[in-house]
UniProtKB/TrEMBL annotation:
Protein name: DNA-binding transcriptional ArsR family regulator
Boundaries of every HTH arsR-type domain copy: 4-100
Keyword rRNA-binding belongs to the record: no
Any one biological process term the GO annotation gives: response to lead ion
Record bears the keyword DNA-binding: yes
GO function terms (MF aspect): cadmium ion sensor activity; DNA binding; DNA-binding transcription factor activity; lead ion binding
Source organism: Phytomonospora endophytica
Length: 111
């Protein structure tokens, strides 16, 4: 049975993953199709080392899984429902953000 603390922990992990643009892009990429680190590094334009650190964070958060395939490892979402959650979140944010700005301390939009 899930408790409020468990549910909040899950949301916090999801939020931490999405807080970094590279991790968010990784999640969107593996939402579309499972991928290998070399493909993700090239797609995102980051070094393999940097990508590896982000993949480790996403694994630790329980959002992606590493699937060994011989000498290679494929990454995919840990659960198909995460893909639906990403789609729903993206749609909601786009709908709400259409006419909304969120000013930062300097009075400029942060979004």
């Amino acid at each position: 049975m899930l408790t409020l603390a468990t549910e909040l922990d899950a949301l916090t992990r999801f939020g931490r993953a999405l807080a970094d643009p590279i991790r968010a892009r990784i999640l969107v990429a593996v939402r579309e199709a499972p991928a290998y680190p070399s493909e993700l590094a090239e797609l995102l334009g980051v070094s393999r080392t940097r990508l590896s650190n982000h993949l480790a964070c996403l694994r630790d958060c329980g959002l992606v899984v590493a699937v060994p395939e011989g000498r290679r490892t494929r990454y995919e979402l840990a659960d198909a429902r995460l893909g639906h959650a990403l789609d729903d979140l993206r749609s909601a944010v786009v709908a709400v953000a259409a006419g909304v700005t969120c000013p930062d301390a300097a009075g400029k939009g942060c979004c």
